[in-house]
Amino acid sequence: MESTSPSNFLHAIIARDLASGRVSEVVTRFPPEPNGYLHVGHAKSICLNFGLAQAFGGRCNLRFDDTNPGKESPEYVASIQEDVRWLGFEWSGPVRYASAYFQQFYDWAVHLVEQGHAYVCDLDAEQAREYRGTLTQPGRNSPCRERPVRENLDLLARMKAGEFDDGSRVLRAKIDMASPNMNLRDPILYRIRKLAHHQTGSDWCIYPTYDFAHGQEDAIEGITHSICTLEFEDHRPLYDWLLEHLPVPSRPRQYEFGRLNLNYTVTSKRKLGQLVDEGVVDGWDDPRLPTISGMRRRGFTPRAIRRFCDMIGVTRSDGVVDVAMLEHAIRDDLNENAPRAMCVLRPLKVVLTDYPADRTDWLTAPNHPTRAELGQRTLPFTRELYIDADDFREAASKKFKRLVLGKRVRLRNACVIEADEVVMGGDGAVAEVRAHTIADTIGKDPADGSKPRGVIHWVSATGGRRARVRLYDRLFHHQAPDRGENDFMALVNPDSLQLVSDAWIEPSLAEALPEQNFQFEREGYFVADRYEHSAEAPVFNRTIGLRDTWNDGP
RNA sequence: UGGGGUGUCGCCAAGCGGCAAGGCACCGGGUUUUGAUCCCGGCAUUCGGAGGUUCGAAUCCUCCCACCCCAGCCA
Prior knowledge:
Strand content: 15-25%
CATH superfamily of the largest domain: HUPs
Oligomer: single chain
CATH architecture of the largest domain: 3-Layer(aba) Sandwich
Number of domains: 3
C-alpha cells in the first residue's frame, strides 16, 4: 500500500526525536473505546497513527480503551477491527485491551496509596461536584483527604472485594484542589461499577477511569508518541503526573491534534447512535452515515478515504472541512478506477421504427475512456430501447444537448438517431418516442458532415435488466446540524433516500460482484450493494453524482 | 472575571526574519461519442487588530480582539 504521510507538525516532532536519539523507534497506537462504530473522524486518527508508524518504520497498536463496561459491547470491538483492516491498516502484534492491564492498574493504585498520593473518598457524585469548585473558584479538600494510608489500603481492598455500593466511594489522586486545571483537583482514579465486563467478565467491580488508564496503557506498550485530540490537552499534566509517580516501564509523551469536523454532517458517536437508535437511518452502516461501514456500503473506497485524510492535513487548529473535499476524493479515485456502464434511472421507451424487431446487434464498448487495459464489454442493441426521461424534450432551446423531437442525438457507444414522433400516454405524459437510426454512424459521424451536439446513454429494453437503485442525498441540508442551539434530529433531510425500483441496466451489470464500483455514464458513481445485490435481483447504491456544471435552461 | 489552546484566500493548509506553496470550491477558455474526465488561465500587495524592534516581519516583542476546550464516578 502506498504510504503517503504528508508532513505535519507530528511528523516533524518524530523526525526530531529520532534524530536526537530520544527514541530509537516510533510506536503509536489507535485507542478506540468499543462503544460505537468508527466514523470518518476516526479515519483521520487511524491514518495519522498508522501512517506515522509506517513512515518511520515503527509500529502501531490497536488498543481497545475498554474501561467503562456500561457503554461497551463485543459488537463494537468486532466492527472496529473490521473497519481498521478495511481501511488498509494492520496493527502490530495482537489486539490490545486496557482491560488486560486491570491487575497492573490496581497494583499501581495501591502503590499510589502507599506513597500517600491517593485516597479513598466517601463523597457522593453531587458532593464531589460541590467540593470541586468552579472554573473561577478553587475547590475544597474532601473530608477524606487526610485518611491514613492504612485505612485507604483497607478501603480500596474492600472496594475491590465488592463490599460497597456503586457510587458510594471512589479512589482519588491527591494533587491540588485549588489547581486552575480542573483535572488536577484530586481526579478520580477508580469507581465502583458492579457490572460484567465484555472481556473480563465478573473479575472486577471497580474500574479505572480514562485518566488512570491511558498513560499507563501507553507506558506498558512502550508507546513513544501518544496522539489524541485537542480536548485532552488539559489532561496532559495529569497524564504526566501519574507517569511520574508510578514505576512505569517507559515514558510516553502525549501530543494533541485538531479533530475532524465536516460540514453538513454530524460526527459524534452519541449523535450517530441516536440516528441509529431512533430509526432515522437503517443502522450504523447506513450509506448516509459518515461511519466507516456506512461509507463502505455507500461505495467509498479505502484509498479515497486515505487520500482525503492526506488532503485535509493535521494541525492544532480546529476547523470545519468542506464535504466537497470528501466528495472530490471519491470522485477522483472512481474516475480513475471505476469501469463505465450504462443505467437508465427513469426509463422512457424509444422505438426505432427502421430497425427489425427480431434483430440484435452486439456492440462493443470500452470499460474506461482512457484505460484500455480495463477491457471492454458488449451491449445488445435492439429495436426497443430505454433512455432517461430527462434526456428527451418535445421542444427545447439550443442549450439542451439531448434528444428533441425532429432532432438528432448520439446514443453513447452506438449510432445517431433522430426523433420522429411522440406517443402520449393516458396520463398526458410522453409514453414513447418513435425514432429512426441514421445509417452508418456507429463509431463515425453522419455522412452529411453534421455532428450531433449531444450524447445520451441508453439500455436495450429487451436485452437489459431491471434493477433497484438507491439514490442518496445529504442526511442534512444544514451546514452545521449540530452547532449551537440546533437540534440536529429536527434538521434531518426527509428526502435523503430515493428508492428507484425500475431502473434499467445493461446486462453485464447484473454480473457485478457486491461492492464493485462503477460509473454509470452521465449519472454518477454507483456500487453493487454489499449485502443485497445479486445477479437475480441487482441492487446499486449511488455513491456520488458526477460533477454537474450544466445550468438548466428552459 | 480561572486555566489551556487557536487565529494565513469562501474551506483545508504550507510558511519558522528576506519579500505569501498547494489542494478544495469558484470563474473564464480549449479538447471530448460521459454537460464527466483532461488541459490552459484567473483567484491573499497581504497573513485577527493596533503599536513596536529591524535595512527588511505572516514570521520577534507589547497590548487588544475573536473563536474553541475544561466544573462526568464518559472517553
